[in-house]
Amino acid sequence: MAQVPQTFFDALAVRTWCGLALESLGRAREEIDAINVYPVADGDTGTNLYLTVESAAAAVEAVFTAYDVGKPTLADAVRAMAHGALIGARGNSGTILAQLLRGMAQVLAAERETAHTDGTGLRLALRTAADSARQAVAHPVEGTVLTVASAAADAAGAATGDDCGAIARAAFDGARAALAATPGQLAALERAGVVDAGGRGLVAVLGALVETFTGEAAPVVAGAATRVRAGTEDDPAGAEDCADDPGEGGPAFEVIYLLEAEDAAVARLRDRLDALGDSLVVVGGDGLWNVHVHVDDAGAAVEAGVEAGRPYRIRITHFGAGDAHSTGERTPRERVQRAVVAVVPGEGLAGLYGEAGATTVLARPGEPPASGELVQAVRRAHAREVVLLPNDADLRHTAAAAAEQARAEGIRVALIPTRSAVQGIAALAVHEPERRFDEDVVSMTSAAGATRHAEVAVAEHRSWTSAGICQAGDVLGLIDGDVAVIGADVTAVAETVLDRMLAAGGELVTLVLGDDAPETIAGHLETRVRETYLAVDTVMYRGGRQGALLLIGVE
Prior knowledge:
Elements lengths: L8 E2 H24 L10 H21 L8 H15 L2 H18 L7 E2 L1 H18 L8 H14 L5 H18 L5 H6 L4 H18 L38 E9 L1 H14 E9 L2 E8 L2 H11 E10 L17 E9 L2 H9 L3 E4 L8 H11 L1 E7 L6 H13 L3 E4 L5 H9 L7 H13 L2 E7 L4 E3 L2 E3 L4 E5 L2 E6 L2 H13 L5 E7 L6 H12 L4 E8 L5 E5 L1
Parallel strand pairs: 7-8, 7-9, 9-10, 16-17
Antiparallel strand pairs: 1-2, 3-5, 3-6, 4-5, 11-14, 11-18, 12-13, 14-15, 16-18
Helix pairs in contact: 1-2, 1-3, 1-9, 2-3, 2-4, 3-4, 4-5, 5-6, 5-7, 6-7, 6-9, 7-9, 10-11, 13-14, 15-16, 17-18
């Protein structure tokens, strides 16, 4: 589909760029994964870049959706893009890309009321992006995405005029030339006969920027086709023997987490993590950071984050035997027959679902997972058959897209439209992997459908609801997604909601408490059920930071 060229860099250009970059990385993802040999040959750079840009694009779309009239400012759009990339950054390459976008945003959002910028602003943004990304890496290495980013900024700086299209094309050409030279700068790339995978991804992103401003697709850039050594038929990229110092191996784990912390604490964290491992990248600012490191002691890396602030969305990947750090032959892990993948709103529920055997995706309040993240979870489950529990009505379309993608990869996926984590708990309780897939799905769907769900939360702003007008700070009781009670006391609202739900009958009440719920509320509600509703059992779980103060399920 032809794109309408953008003369200036404004909010619409940001939106267009994110969409085109996502499409470009989608086309190149498998190729980039295949040439991924540095710093670890784990074959996921293309996927990580795609997921990072997908999160950035989703954040920009959310900003546009929030405007009923008019459109967001350039500052609104670039800040959303940078924040989305930060919270969705995956792997070493995705983390660096997030910092590149953040560096651009720092320049482009400097004047909040500016509707757009020209080539001069774009030139400065690219320079700041390259410099800030290099500063975020503990030990910068030439021949990587950092080199490509610096070359793009240098070329943009040398270009004349104020036309955004000309500046973008100069940056793209400079990056492409630098990418072609990366095998001569990094031994791992030269041995494998490939260009740097992260740099290849950045060139794709810059190509999308050219198309945004000119309407013309940038030339396709080869990655694997630039090999200086052909490899073998079984291992065309030479990926099995190209990690740095393969005889010495490398750290066993990749640790990534988001971190809420002050600048001074992050400075100490950098020193601590640098002593623990390698491939350290810490990006972000303004109290929110994305931390990436390769270590042998994953627990120590997470503990360092706890000492610095509050880490969450913690992802630990074990490279393991026969992986990128091994020179031996890979032994593929056998797929299990069936698995459950579930989106959960808090760390406590993630633990509960995990103990029940589910693969979980943690959704932070206000930051729902993208479809690519769900697809990754389905792949991580490594099963022939997967039951997907979105546990949120707003994730229906996202989960459906993920299921469709997984089916295209040969995985049999059934999507159960759970609208709350308590419905997911009910479905998981009757899950039996040994029976036929269709029978298991029907049983789980029936259990979820028979569970009414409610939540107690605090209103963030004044609004109209089905129960009347609420003010910011009011306590809301929602039953099956609709506001049914508005009050001032959390326990009183929760009791009213529970009474209304049990008026229609029930045998089991499930309570999931968030971190901010009153300490006495669980005991009060359990006593209420025991004394008022005969033969109704109650079970209580700790949900952690789940957004809602309380989740209630009635079966």
